[in-house]
From TrEMBL:
Protein name (record): Probable splicing factor YJU2B
InterPro entries: Saf4/Yju2
Protein family according to the UniProt entry: Belongs to the CWC16 family.
Protein task: May be involved in mRNA splicing.
Region span, Disordered: 1-29
Classification lineage: Eukaryota, Metazoa, Chordata, Craniata, Vertebrata
A GO-annotated cellular component: U2-type spliceosomal complex
Gene Ontology BP annotations: mRNA splicing, via spliceosome
Organism: Pavo cristatus
C-alpha cells in the first residue's frame, strides 16, 4: 500500500527529460518555492506560522541561518 503514495506524477505532453532534466526545471520552480530561494548558497529558512487561540494574532517562528 505504501508504494502507491508517491509514484503518481503528471508529465505534460511537451515535457522532454533530455531537454528539461526534471519537472521542477520544466515548471521553473522548486518544491519549497520561496523558502528555497537561497538554497544554492546552502541557506534554508523554515517558517512556522499559527494563530493564538486566545487573541487570534499570528505567531511566527523562523530559523536563523
Amino acid at each position: 500500500m505504501g508504494e502507491r503514495k508517491g509514484t503518481n506524477k503528471y508529465y505534460p505532453p511537451d515535457f522532454d527529460p533530455a531537454k528539461h532534466g526534471s519537472l521542477n526545471k520544466y515548471h521553473g520552480s522548486h518544491p519549497l518555492r520561496e523558502r528555497a530561494r537561497k538554497l544554492s548558497q546552502g541557506i534554508l529558512v523554515i517558517r512556522f506560522r499559527m494563530k493564538c487561540h486566545l487573541c487570534v494574532n499570528h505567531i511566527e517562528l523562523q530559523t536563523d541561518p
